[in-house]
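Field: sequence (string)
Field: structure_tokens (string)

Example rows 1 and 2, in order.
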Amino acid sequence: MSTRTSDLAPVVVSPDGPSGQAVGEAIRQELVDSIRANAHGRTANTRSSNTLSGQALEKVREFGAMHIKAATWARILDGGVDGGPMWERFVRTANDAGNREVEMRATASRTLTDLVAPVIAQAKLRGKGRFFAHVNASFNREAILAMALNTGNESNLQRLLDGEGWTIDKLQPMLDTLTAADWAFVQGVWDHFETYRPLIAEKERRVSGKEPTWIEAAPREVTTADGQTVQLRGGYYPVKYDPRASARAAEHADAEEARAMMHKAYTASTTRRSFTKDRAKRVTGRPLLYALDGVYNGLNEVIHDLSWHEWLIDTTRLLRSTAITDAIRETYGPEVHKQFKEWADDIAVGERKMTASAERWGSWMRQNVSIAGIGFNSMSAAIQPLGLSNSMARIGVKWVGKGLMRSVADLGGRSEERRVGKE
């Protein structure tokens, strides 16, 4: 894996202990002093209005605040200068974490693409599948691959079998349909999850002082559908229950969402880390989800946690500081501080499933478009014509003009290339 363990070191310095507390206090004081100094005596109304006009004005202010990116707010609080304390402590470190996540996802995506290519080349994964009379059910290749992925350790296998009320003998006919290429994909997925173990271990030691309890692999030998004998090392795979198959599974999913909402309201924002939690020894009556979503969702969860967990610890610690909170609220208003908190909350959630389709769409747009540094909001299109004036103010008219001339020249060159190509 290309990501170095050292790349995942904490991005904001606020460790525990006397020396760390002193550093943390110095950072907080630096931020407070900067915010108040750059406000130049500005004061905001922090009281709620009881008049219709006052309440309407509050809504307008909140609407305006939510359509300005956190990075822009940080620069405003820094007095409009580059590299100020708010930018350095919040935005630059967030950019670093985001870059790590993009790089790690790109690596995982390439790995998974290579792994699944031979499987897809054999036959389609979905469709009605094949009927297995002994369990009175039909399963397609994707479902059977998902079953196979849950045989890499005793914990997953127990949940797979007891979720359906099967014995290993009832599971075996489905597994017997898999080829050597299918099993190579399964072992490859297990191996890829294993590459994250050193990174997870180091991060957890930094955060909590100890490593999580690891799921131990269960080696086994299989005979493939194309007559080969394959030795499997086994490995970790995230347990994903089917919420439609069991009321308990649905209740568990709802409880996860409820806990996330409670954390958002009352505690520090943090990433989801189901892969570091101790598993119950035995779970029955909750069928697993037979889809390859577990591969992608599980990897996204691991990568998101490795990229953002420590940033969120440090960022929420600063945002929950009374001194910093008061400095922002008293100079620019409660709605601005709220934007920083919601920014951290959205990062913590990552791609965690949302219940409403509109939320899923909005979240997808925010998560993916933000990677490119583009703010997705209703004002973006309206302010684009004014973007050049902003650029001129930042870097000068001369350099904006040179950039425009070069862009126009490049467009002309590409047009000429297309014309010649057509001829």
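Row 2 begins here:
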Amino acid sequence: MHGLDAGRSDAGPIDAGRTDAGLVDAALMDAALMDAGLADSGFADAGLADAGFDAGPSFGYPCDLVVPDDHLTIPDAVAAAPSPGVVCVRAGTHDAAFSLRPHVAVVGEGPATIIRGEITARDLDDPDPTPTLLADFTLEATGNEAIHTCRLGSRSCGDRQINITSGWALHLSSLEINMPAVGSTYCLHTDLAWLGGSLTMEDSRCASSRGIRFLGAVRQTAPASRFDVTLERNRFERGVAGAMREPIELLIGSGGTCGSTPAAPGTRVNALVRNNELFEVTGDAVYLIQCLDLAPADDRASDYVFTYNTITGAPTARVAYAFWNNSSNGHGPRWSVVNNLYYGFMGETYNGPVPDVAASNLRLDTSPFVDVATGDLRLAPGASPIDVADPGYVVAVDVAGDPRPIDGDASGSAEHDVGAREYAP
């Protein structure tokens, strides 16, 4: 991860209206920040209609059980599969609500594998840090949330927070998550306590009124809490209910007043948010809290990095803030915001404490895209984000899996572009 050495900057008073920042005392698991990989995301180079992943004629993983060949339903196959194991689901529509088991992957044949229902990840507590995989299918949610840590069928979900005693790790890859009902909310909503966990979401699309909400509560005494979040090469966009509000929420704290409770020595909190498109956002694009009192060594080993993302506002209800940091100054983890592209804002870039590092971000009032109205966020020829990114933050591909950097301005030198897309002449 990119180290952050800058001091914290003061910012004016923040909106204290949110109550999410006061999180329960607990702890989280030890898991290394996962490299989301450099594989082709499968996103097409156009907009909404073409933003899905490549289907392919067969499964991309070795199958232990196949639905409906070996078991008629996904819940039955997940229950019967070995751990570790892989449940493969053939193309077609499958009505299923099911609970994940540790290290039992569920994979489809691409977007033609449609699962209508909900998935709970509340039973993934396991000493083996290998993530449980969901990959290569379309999930059409029939409840309030698509993937969550609630009990199946719970509408109010008063038991969302789960105490992790060994470890929790979930990996989402090449999913298309749709919230078809008006009023439906998150594509993913988890709440982890005790030994916590890691989440990787890559090469996926979330179409809803909200995106992902990752809640965590760190312990104040040993054993220390550790968790990691990687969001890479995803697209968050509006569902049928209209523009998406706060597509990314990272709410990890230790309870009480912001920064008042020291985290246990050894606590590690890391997030990498890179190469994502947040399209037609209203309200705020990223909502986070920065309220951990970390020991110096833990602070140096913890950070949030937001880099090479593109954020666009909705046509009629534009983005209020790119980042709402509902915190007070001087707390961890440190965070950096570099090489991001913003378009269609009505408010300031930051609300609350500003980043420890902020560099080469562009905020534009004139569209630099091929056709923002249709969701085509490729950079237009001659657009100002081309070849002007901070070279200190290097990434090999863009949101579409196309290589970076490319000499987009014919200067004779290949330089990275600001935002999620690399311009190719």
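free_text_note (row 2): Residues 1-57 have pLDDT under 50 and may be disordered.
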